[in-house]
Amino acid sequence: MNTLRVALLGCGVVGSEIARQMVEHADDLAARVGARLELAGIAVRRLDRDRSDTGVDPTLFTTDAVELVSRDDVDAVVEVIGGIDPARSLILTAMEQGKSVVTANKALLADDGFALHAAAEKHDVDLYYEAAVAGAIPLLRPLRESLVGDHVNRVLGIVNGTTNYILDQMDTHGAGFAEALEEAQALGYAEADPTTDVEGYDAAAKAAILAGIAFHSPVTLADVHREGMSGVTASDVASAKAMGSVVKLLAICELAPEGDAVGVRVHPAMIPREHPLAGVRGAYNAVFVEAEYAGQLMFYGPGAGGAPTASAVLGDVVTVARNRLGGVTGPGGSWYAERPVRPTGETVTRYHISLDVADRPGVLAAVAAVFAEQGVSIETVRQRTEDSGDAELVVVTHQATDDALSATVRGLTDLATVRDVMSVMRVEGE
Ligand SMILES: NC(=O)C1=CN([C@@H]2O[C@H](COP(=O)(O)OP(=O)(O)OC[C@H]3O[C@@H](n4cnc5c(N)ncnc54)[C@H](O)[C@@H]3O)[C@@H](O)[C@H]2O)C=CC1
Ligand SMILES: N[C@@H](CC=O)C(=O)O
Ligand code: NA
Questions:
Q1: pLDDT given at position 257
Q2: Quick check: CB of 184 below 6 Å from ligand 1?
Q3: What's one GO MF term for it (predicted)?
Q4: What is the dihedral of CA 291, 131, 169, 234, to 10 degrees?
Q5: Which numbered ligand comes closest to the C-alpha of 158?
Q6: Predicted local distance difference test score (pLDDT) of residue 275
């Protein structure tokens, strides 16, 4: 039987699981590929760590990633060190030398995916990255292959496990933000710098990758409107609960109803508890794809964690290995549609606005007048009066543009009777 040799870059949460699964299931993988998949080496930052749990021959570890990807006896490279550099240069070096690449690196793909695809095409090698978006869930391959004959209009969902875990812990156990984040880190869900998760950069990178593939148009992180979830308070979560909703960090990629502009955004939103996304718990992810002919499809499963992510990486490794044995490469990218990016101000959603106001006559009328001035229609108003004589006014609007809502918030801030605009959150899913 032939042997294909794989260089693994990184042996952290994901890398150690890839190594472990490759060793544990070596015979099955060989039978499925038609060749043995052998680890040629594993690039790590430090050699003094105990990695015996992977079952890997300790002599395979090296701190020289450049030498490893350049070796003649390496057929494919798996990059799971993360970040932009040196991941980018290592991948490019591997491709220049005829090696196919599998990566889980959404930050790099959202920054430079087109250049990486161009390099793969130029050097006639594969580039696969199913693990980069929504962890174990098969999503990119269905979009790239199964749905390529259809016309996708919208991709919407939860694509970050860490923030979903935090929001779920806040909602169901009343947990604090910091405590829930620490747990998510300990469970291997968070990025090396968890700000990436919490401030929505990770979800935004995934949204850019999804939009690019779904709409066949080049979309990068810079095109994504991004709001993180660090500003979501216990009171927002409670307020959502009171109106039968839950707060989730959503990624939404959509084609404008008219014209061909693409809008891509990541932000916290309140969604009704009966919506399927509301039931997505812990570090699970769920993504809806709305296509013209297929209708609505839902993809659901573990979105983060070492073992699930390694499962998606190994699926790609097997594909790359099969392609190599067959002397072919898989389908590359297709970004022929140069769609403009819709300005954020034109995004249309409903809003939940919470105001700290003085409880006296005329306040409600003054507040309502500001909404009316900007043409923002109010759906419901709820008031909670405190013993101190202050009141919390919660307004939910009908659909309005971001621009109209921003002008409304400015108008509310200027009102003498409004002490504070405590929170402004989008409402989705109805
Ligand atoms: N943890 C998860 O649930 C998921 C992670 N990913 C992606 O997978 C990649 C890896 O993530 P994790 O394993 O969680 O991160 P990690 O931080 O646990 O592992 C990365 C490892 O790479 C090593 N490393 C960094 N620079 C290196 C270099 N120049 N040479 C050799 N080793 C180097 C680090 O020492 C660390 O052990 C990232 O791109 C991440 O975004 C994707 C999906 C899910
Ligand atoms: N940090 C990411 C890991 C998977 O992509 C997340 O929490 O979703
Ligand atoms: Na995936």
A1: 79
A2: no
A3: NADP binding
A4: -70
A5: 2
A6: 96
User: Domain of 54?
Assistant: 3-134+306-326
In-domain check, residue 336: no
206 is catalytic: yes
Assess if residue 109 is contained within a domain. yes
Say if ligand 1 is within 6 A of residue 162 CB: no
Residues 320 and 267 in one domain: no
Residues with CB under 5 A from ligand 3 (ion): 130, 134, 137, 139, 312
Q: Which residues of 203-235 are buried (b: 16+ CB within 10 A; e: fewer)?
A: bbbbbbbbbbbbbbbbbbbebbbbbbbbebeee
> Closest-lying ligand to the alpha carbon of 129?
3
Instruction: Give 321-373 pLDDT, tens digit per residue.
Output: 999 999 999 998 899 999 999 999 999 999 999 999 988 889 999 999 999 99
ipTM of predicted assembly, 2 dp: 0.99
User: Which of 133, 165, 191, 201 to mutate for ligand 2's pocket (most ligand atoms within 8 Å of CB)?
Assistant: 191
* Helix ranges restricted to H, 360-401: 363-373
The DSSP output letter for 241 is H
- Tens-digit pLDDT profile for residues 63-79: 999 999 999 999 999 99
Q: Is the CB of 308 under 6 A from ligand 2?
A: no
Last residue of a domain, one of 246, 269, 302: 302
Ligand 2 geometric centre to CA of 39 (Å): 25
Give the contacts of 26 (CB within 8 A, at least 6 positions apart). 36, 37
User: Would 337 be classed as within a structural domain?
Assistant: no
User: Same domain for 129 and 211?
Assistant: no
